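Hi R.,

As promised, here are both runs. First protein below:
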Amino acid sequence: MLISMNHSVIRFGIITDIHYELESNIVAAPDEDLRASLHCFQNHQVDFLLQLGDLIQGDDTSKEEELRHVCALLDEFQGPVRHVLGNHCLALPREKLMAALRLHNPFYSFSLQGYRFIVLDGMDVSVLRNAETDEELQILALFRAHLELHDYCGAVGTKQKIWLKSELERAEQAGEIVIAVCHFPLLPDTTDQKYGLLWNHNEIAELLASSTALKVCLSGHFHHGGYACFRGKHFVVLPAFVNRHEHPEFTCATAEVSPERMIIRNNANVVLFDLPFLQTWPL
């Protein structure tokens, strides 16, 4: 980092893989539990809420109503909500989804008190979109040759990679601490074969880890959660809200970030991760 910047402590809420459905059973209709999570965030006086993707289940007959209903619930949160696109969300047309989530672009960044959050679109290259470059055609060809990569996953495309490199460089020059966000896990150690991960995860993880500004990458998608340290950088996958009855110790999380570390607590205020920011990392 070239410029010294004063960083204060910030707090934000995290929730992922809500998979909202309009069914009557308690697991599929999570209004009460979702409102309890929002109440937890308000009690911790978080600066914003980070929603890590798969907001809806994407049922063919009710996906638009699912989105309307869960967005109305999240609007009860008294603060900014930052959204990440998940694969289930794209059961709806991308333009309609982005309008509902008030997103101008599917990948974006925002800064707060010396911290830059870089939000990636992991479905940038996917079976749901036409490839725009030769590189993206090659990525799709690789998927078709290796169907175990899963058609519900995707990759970061050419333009987004150029943008990501620029964002990391700007953060380094500004002396900002970077927290990257992607719906899909970026390391094999943080997921399994059934759920999969970002198609070009190796390249994106290397790119992120090579930045002195990057300290943590947050993801969802793998419903059981996971963690790995790669080149001194923390890669955290948070458990899914939709599976909260399988792991009652986690419905949502609050993160507290200082210049030295990130501490992630569950909905019972128990520390799940204490992630010190290393100043150097091994080659």
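And here is the second one, sequence first, then its structure tokens:
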Amino acid sequence: MKIQAVLFDWAGTTVDYGSRAPVQVFLEIFRRIGIPISEAEARGPMGQAKREHIASVLSLPRVAGLWKEKFGSIPESADVDRLYADFLPLQLSVLSQGSDVIPGIPQLIDDLRARGLKIGSSTGYTRALMAAVIPNALEQGYAPDVVLCSDEVPAGRPMPWLNLRACEALNVYPPASVVVVDDTPIGIQAARNAGMWAVGITMTGNGLGLSQADTESLPSDELEQRLGQLEADYLAAGAHFVLKKATDLIPVLDEVNSRMASGVRPL
């Protein structure tokens, strides 16, 4: 058995260096209701579908406590719906700021296709939101064979459905012949739950959460320390491999093919 397909998470892995666009919207919708949250709180559930992401932030003890203090009760499902309704148009308005393809990704896709691999992408964004960013990615040379969105499956990550639906759309089987590349522990868990190889990305994604310019301006020892902690987080979530950038993927694919030739599967 050999690898047949690679599935990439969208923001932070192939597009939007630092996964910055969604975070700004989460910060803003909570600011508008008078309960400011930190960037760390906003980033914590990243990888989930956006409604579930909002629910996860509201369930944080500090945030739930502030909500009860302000509104007299703990957050309920209707409160999640109200915040999500605010989230969607605001996210749509700022997506153009987070639609730049990460450097080197178009060449990576060309290299993968030269190997005969199929390319998929999944995202916590809805189809309506992705309609605003996919054309920008196409113009910059990033064109997956299929893109799966959070509102097209029964539940988002860490459930496996996005990955399995992508395999169905690509006509790829078994799941063990698929490599998932993601920048969140939740995405790594989803890959493992689907029975696929999981590769975590530390430097361009949600964990570090910095633009390329800000990443390059960090002192090297601080950068390596932070990336090392992220690597530990991904390994704890079940990653088979951890890389700084998705563009470093080719040697990992060779290693996966070697392991599978020896009978190893991503259990």
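A quick note on the second one: The first strand starts at residue 5 and ends at 9. Let me know what you think.

Best,
J.
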